[in-house]
Each structure stands twice: as C-alpha cells, then as structure tokens.
C-alpha cells in the first residue's frame, strides 16, 4: 500500500526502516508522551517488525505506514489506522514524527491522508484518536484534521510514575464529507 500527499509518501514498512526509526525514538522530546524511558535497537526492530507482520494479515485490519520525504527518501515518522475486526466500521488513528521535523505540518498531512483512506477505501463510519492532554501539539493536529474533541479522561493512564489525562477526538464520515447535522422538531439529529 502506498499513499501520496502534496509533500509526503506513506508506504509500507520494510525491515531496514528500523534504523531510521531508531534515529528519533530515543530523543527525549519524542519520549516525553510515551510510556518508554528509552528505546534500544532491539525495541525498535520489534516495533517495525510488528507493522510488517500486520501487512500479511488477511483480511488486513491494521495499516501502519512509514512517512517518507520524497525528495530525500528520508523516513521521518509513521501514521496508521486500525480496526478491531474485519467488519468493523470504526477505527482509530495514530501518528508519530521525528522531532527534527516537528512544526512543518507533516503529521497533519499524513494523518489526513490516513483519514481519507479510512473513509474512502475502508468505508468507515467513525475514526477516533486520543492523545495525552499535555501534548498540545498533537491535540492541535487532531483539531486541524476536523476531529471534534469528545472528552477528557481524567488520570486514566499511569505512565512514568504519574497519572496522565487523555483527550478523546473523533470524526464521522458525514462530518468529513462536510454534511452538516441539523436538529429536527423532536430534538433528534437528522441529515440535511
């Protein structure tokens, strides 16, 4: 599988990609909102091999793609969409980016392509995402994608010796397509 955007290529992982992932995952800026204290070569190889194994599933329900800059062929992160089972009409997305490439809109562009794939190709009804509440940059990405904040789970995640809040986001297929919801006289939601 391969998706292209204006500035990026999203492609399947290959075994040698672990070296590029190892270039950024040990970075303290990256690790701040992840449960890991460190990332070793073995950790990263296992991480990439998991995504390669997902490629072989039939039917395939998880798609985690490498984010690559086409001009340099540099892997700068990854983005994925995952369903719980083959006939599911809901899925969640996630993404990560090398801190050296933060602030350039790459995460938004890659995740936007993954959302489009989810609605167009996987025929999903709903796509959700979550992020650590303190990760304001990730929350901004989700909001730029047109996802609506559905809630905040207070101290629901124990990580690195403390409790963290999680923000929950989602977008429905009709919202992504720009179809507004309007209230009817009986208080029910209906499509126009």
| Integer average pLDDT | 92
Main beta sheet: 8 strands, mixed
Oligomer: single chain
How many distinct domains? Answer: 1
Give me the secondary-structure category: alpha+beta
Low-confidence stretches: 182-192
Euclidean distance between termini CA atoms: 35 Å
The fraction of residues assigned to DSSP E strands is 35-45%
> Would you give the CATH topology?
Aminopeptidase
Strand order of the largest sheet: 1-2-3-4-5-6-8-7
Produce the secondary structure layout.
Layout (H helix, E strand, L loop, with lengths): L1 E3 L4 E4 L5 H7 L3 H4 L9 H15 L6 E8 L4 E9 L7 E8 L8 H15 L5 E7 L3 H9 L3 E12 L2 E11 H4 L4 E3 L5 E3 L1
Parallel strand pairs: 5-6
Antiparallel strand pairs: 1-2, 2-3, 3-4, 4-5, 6-8, 7-8, 9-10
Helix pairs in contact: 1-3
């Amino acid at each position: 599988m391969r998706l292209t955007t204006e500035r990026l290529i999203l492609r399947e992982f290959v075994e040698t990609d672990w070296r590029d992932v190892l270039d950024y995952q040990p970075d303290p800026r990256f690790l701040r909102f992840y449960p890991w204290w460190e990332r070793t070569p073995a950790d990263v190889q296992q991480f990439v091999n998991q995504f390669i194994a997902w490629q072989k599933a039939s039917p395939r329900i998880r798609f985690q793609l490498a984010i690559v800059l086409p001009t340099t062929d540099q892997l700068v992160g990854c983005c994925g969409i995952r369903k719980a089972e083959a006939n599911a009409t809901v899925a969640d997305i996630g993404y990560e980016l090398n801190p050296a490439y933060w602030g350039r809109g790459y995460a938004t562009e890659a995740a936007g392509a993954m959302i489009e794939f989810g609605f167009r190709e996987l025929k999903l009804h709903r796509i959700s995402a979550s992020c650590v509440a303190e990760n304001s940059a990730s929350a901004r990405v989700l909001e730029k994608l047109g996802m609506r904040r559905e809630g905040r789970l207070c101290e629901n995640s124990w990580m690195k010796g403390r409790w963290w809040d999680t923000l929950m986001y989602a977008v429905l297929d009709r919202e992504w397509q720009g179809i507004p919801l309007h209230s009817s006289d009986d208080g029910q939601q209906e499509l126009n």
